[in-house]
Inverse folding.
């Protein structure tokens, strides 16, 4: 091996083949894997069942670092947000959103985003680069460090779920996302089950078919509109992959994996928040036979954005209408509003300083 390799983000078979190059037997892979992904060690010298000679070899050939925590903020509602910096100085945000007895870590997959959704602050920033598989996984590892959740049983973990929906469109970074999910779900390491991982996408249809085949994680769609024309106004991707086709693919995904499809729906004042829009949504779900759950999200406006948040009354009436049709439609308040937890905002605030 010529130069030091990032160890986090290597699949087991890749790690095995590097160890083979170093003259090590394949059973070392499992030992190292457990130190890294089960015990969360960041120092090869703490891997006490490996010989001193091997620890030294590992140190000379691999990097085992975490991204640097630039800021860490906790909201009054206990939402926690980290601004993380990678080796090249690029920064992303990772958010932990607690529920009563568990919670989800919301992970970014790209720096910036190329999808250009008009309501999204991240979308107003250009795509800088994709994150590597190691950078995607290490966001969750930082959260586990902070909550001291290495080497504890699944049901006792607060960080029980992962949502791939921070900055970026996960399906535009397909290979790294697939690799990251394979490592996150490995039972000898981090061990988060597939049904606790949700991938949220703006709707890149061919890749939804691929995750259907390759991963089978839970699917969430950034919907934000109740008809095709309206969706095209705020999400450019809809022109390439129109809503009817997207819903057909959602139907097929659900046929293959059961459960329900989550639809994220940002409540935008006078744009998509009328009762007629709720009725339209319900009709669409009936037409495509989708067992849908709607997350109605209160909009957190950002400077320069064209949209305003819907009133509480409207959001509640919208939710009630969907429930009348038999769909779960919980209202998600903008969590961590006091620390600017809406998509992309913390990074931008820091950059202005
Ligand atoms: S909503 Fe998601 S896909 Fe759309 S611009 Fe924002 S980060 Fe990208």
């Amino acid at each position: 091996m010529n130069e030091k390799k990032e160890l986090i983000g290597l699949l087991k078979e890749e790690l095995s083949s590097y160890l083979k190059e170093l003259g090590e037997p394949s059973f070392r892979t499992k030992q190292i894997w457990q130190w890294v992904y089960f015990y969360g060690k960041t120092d090869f010298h703490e891997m006490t069942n490996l010989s001193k000679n091997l620890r030294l070899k590992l140190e000379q050939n691999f990097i085992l670092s975490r991204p640097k925590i630039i800021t860490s903020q906790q909201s009054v509602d206990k939402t926690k947000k980290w601004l993380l910096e990678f080796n090249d100085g690029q920064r992303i945000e990772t958010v932990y959103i607690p529920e009563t007895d568990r919670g989800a870590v919301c992970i970014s997959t790209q720096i910036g985003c190329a999808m250009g959704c008009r309501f999204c602050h991240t979308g107003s920033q250009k795509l800088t680069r994709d994150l590597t598989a190691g950078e995607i996984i290490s966001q969750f590892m930082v959260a586990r460090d902070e909550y001291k959740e290495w080497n504890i049983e699944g049901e006792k973990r607060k960080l029980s779920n992962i949502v791939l929906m921070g900055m970026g469109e996960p399906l535009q970074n397909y290979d790294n996302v697939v690799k990251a999910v394979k490592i996150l779900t490995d039972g000898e390491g981090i061990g988060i089950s597939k049904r606790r991982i949700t991938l949220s996408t703006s709707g890149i249809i061919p890749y939804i078919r691929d995750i259907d085949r390759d991963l089978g994680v839970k699917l969430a769609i950034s919907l934000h509109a109740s008809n095709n024309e309206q969706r095209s106004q705020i999400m450019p991707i809809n022109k390439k992959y129109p809503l009817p086709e997207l819903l057909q693919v959602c139907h097929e995904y659900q046929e293959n994996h059961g459960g329900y499809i989550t639809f994220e729906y940002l409540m935008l004042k006078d744009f998509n928040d009328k009762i007629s829009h709720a009725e339209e949504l319900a009709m669409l779900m009936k037409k495509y036979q989708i067992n849908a759950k709607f997350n109605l999200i209160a909009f957190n406006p950002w400077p320069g954005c064209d949209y305003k948040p819907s009133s509480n009354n409207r959001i509640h009436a919208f939710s009630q209408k969907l429930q009348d049709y038999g769909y779960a439609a919980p209202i998600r308040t903008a969590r961590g509003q006091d620390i600017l937890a809406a998509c992309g905002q913390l990074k931008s605030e820091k950059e202005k300083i």
